[in-house]
Amino acid sequence: MSPALEALMQADGTPYSAKGVMLEPFVHQVGGHSCVLRFGEQTICKPLIPREHQFYKNLPLEMRKFTPQYKGVVSVSFEEDEEGNLCLIAYPLHSESGDSENKDPSADCQEPKSKMLKWSNKKQSPLLQEKENYSKDRPRNSRKEDKIMSYNRDEVQQQQAEVLYFSLEKGNVVSQIKHNPWSLKCHQQQLQRMKENAKHRNQYKFILLENLTWRYRVPCVLDLKMGTRQHGDDASEEKKANQIRKCQQSTSASIGVRLCGMQVYQSDSGQIMFMNKYHGRKLTLAGFKEALYQFFHNGRRLRHELLSPVLRRLREMQAALEACESYRFYSSSLLIIYDAGGLSGGGGSSSRSSHGAGEASSPEVDVRMIDFAHTTCRHYGEDSVVHEGQDSGFIFGLQNLITIISQLEEHSTD
Questions:
Q1: What is the topology classification, in CATH, of domain 131-173+213-412?
Q2: Which part of the chain has CATH 3.30.470.160?
Q3: Which residues pair with 358 in a beta bridge?
Q4: From the DSSP assignment, how many helices (H) and strands (E) are in the chain?
Q5: Higher pLDDT residue, 264 or 358?
Q6: Could you tell me the sign of the dihedral formed by the alpha carbons of 314, 383, 371, 364, in that order?
């Protein structure tokens, strides 16, 4: 094992052997279509896309506080046992040069099967075994058009309920938070793709990134797709038309932002509410505002103390983006994260926060940009299209988001 990867794993509290790191599903993924895996307490990994990898390696200094920390690249392989269980394991790369496939990332894995992380594409998963916890009961303040269904095996494979409520028992809430519906769907799709390609390829490059939720006991996560345009410059005509249609039929065209995913804990009912991108695309402006209200509401009251720190971060991000010449963040998302349990515990975690020392007494929230698979700027020498000035679509979305959250803040003080 490389010294660099071993040092990262030790700092991350990751169990490891000389053979590699066993990857687990990342339970707090609420949006996107790429499979995100848990590498360790403070680190996640996702499939390497060359353009996104280039962005992280050449990140402008003024953008670093608004993006996850980049931690390198690993090679991910999988095994399938006789029962059809898939095990994903990360190995160090011999070299990070270029983006070509690494043919021999490490020695063959001889780890005993009993020590391998397993989850199944055939057997019923823990989430599905607990499907009775997914409630059809509609909370008092939910929207009439919410589509809430019990979660069963067919829906995992075919259709996602757009809004789901997962009931937690009183007591240790943290220990009950397992896979949310969206992360499970992304994992199953990724594992199926890898299985189908197994004859041709069994090594995939993944990038390592900071786990933005690690310091929170019960993370509430909002994933917002930013900008008035989502397709990259290299998109096919079909892809371009499809993305333009999605923007026109959602709040992306009118306000430059749409809901892409959400999980929020409601303490009054003891439920976690999940909302996915299909519901987000259907929201009107009024519906989008109501969804933001729901995100900052714990079931008992609006968490107004969160709004000022979020607005401060959004305004700082806007200033940084206005100084970014030539960048276009097509299809990037904005994450807003806070702890349903209030201030996060754990000695020293706040000192590693991206916020200033003077904010130690304020509720810990985080606001970051993620997903840079379609990002471009003039420094990317191979790009045929070079843009000038600011990313006005992304900034337009930020401005409208700031306005809407400011209105929430004003109403919360009435």
A1: D-amino Acid Aminotransferase; Chain A, domain 1 (3.30.470)
A2: 131-173+213-412
A3: none
A4: 12, 16
A5: 264
A6: negative
